[in-house]
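Hey all, quick one. A colleague (J.T.) asked me to put the zinc ion job into the tracker so the inputs and the structure tokens live in one place instead of scattered across chat threads. No bug as far as I know, just bookkeeping. Sequence used:
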Amino acid sequence: MKNTKAYAAASATAPLAPESILRRDPTESDVQIEILFCGVCHSDLHTVRDEWSSVMPTTYPCVPGHEIVGRVTAVGAAVTEHTEGDLVGVGCLVDSDQTCPNCQANVEQFCPDSTFTYNSPDKHGAAPVTYGGYSESIVVDEKFVLKVPGNLDPAGVAPLLCAGITTYSPIRRWGDIKGKKVGIVGLGGLGHMGVKFAKAFGAHVAVFTTSPSKKEDALRLGADEVIISTDAAQMKQNTGSFDFILDTISADHDINAYLGMLALDGNLTLVGAPEKPLQVSAFALLFGRKSLSGSLIGGIKETQEMLDFCGEHNITSDVEVIPIQQVNEAYERLLKSDVKYRFSIDMASLKQE
Ligand code: NAP
Ligand code: ZN
């Protein structure tokens, strides 16, 4: 086992602070990775503050981070897909049983025995729970290690490992969105990637935002139009006109307002995971035969497909690179919807601790 520098929260009310954790020695199927960048996902904040306690209570200390890009520093004897020096990524998953129907169908995120990158029981026993990417290094089974296209900026690639796949997967699953009217609700980490992917697949993209100051950015990111969701007149004008809406909002909100934007047979897919249950009006679904669904990250195969797509189309996340010492301030800004459009932590900064 190896002592490894990390940033951890000691409780739901404690700030993130330097901590030493143990990483296992690589087994024969493991890849050891020096972490270069780690994105800051709103899920990190929900977990650190135990906001999902009713579904997935947080075990402390908690080391978040599941948008990891790094360099391979060692591989086990049986590893075939990665070699020392490779630029690789790790997302939200680090293990699954590999045998259940969901694993067989390449949707390991729905394996009943999947291991998430942080806050899941650690099957290797290095710690009570897995520890994420706000750390110097990580050891991961090679099946859960992704290849990162060499032409992309690693700081902007890190967020693809969660925000990227979480928006890519439902957009692909919806079908051919070319020429369809697609709404992206919330222009944050997930939302700005949703805009890029929906545009790349040929949709007419509208951003719903509560932040009028983000309008210019939304258009620059590829949106065809911007709807200020707090402006009743703008909302009314767009009623019943969307084929597909992706809702990325991290906080409580009126989902019925967005269901009202859907056309006949339209679908709203939730990826945002607010702390409290949302109230859905039956009538908002009944009139117009609308559907409401959810989506959780994506499997490993699809995540690699998404990374390759990004390599081919030069797509990365728009990032504000920060040292780990600014992570608590970054969380406060995230809560104010004040990030353009993802924080990416430069892990070299952890060496100073
Ligand atoms: P984020 O960067 O904080 O973006 C969330 C955006 O939602 C904000 O930028 C803001 O956009 C909007 N928003 C925030 N509070 C709002 C409110 N009270 N009312 C209306 N809009 C509000 O967060 P993120 O990292 O993209 O994550 C978004 C959510 O997805 C989180 O709940 C996260 O846990 C979840 N998530 C789910 C998955 C999954 O697999 N399903 C994966 C990753 C993350 P505007 O300023 O444009 O209004
Ligand atoms: Zn995430």
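Adding what we noticed when we looked at it: Residues 2 and 23 are 5 Å apart (CA to CA). Residues 41, 43, 66, 162 surround zinc ion (ligand 2) (CB under 6 Å).
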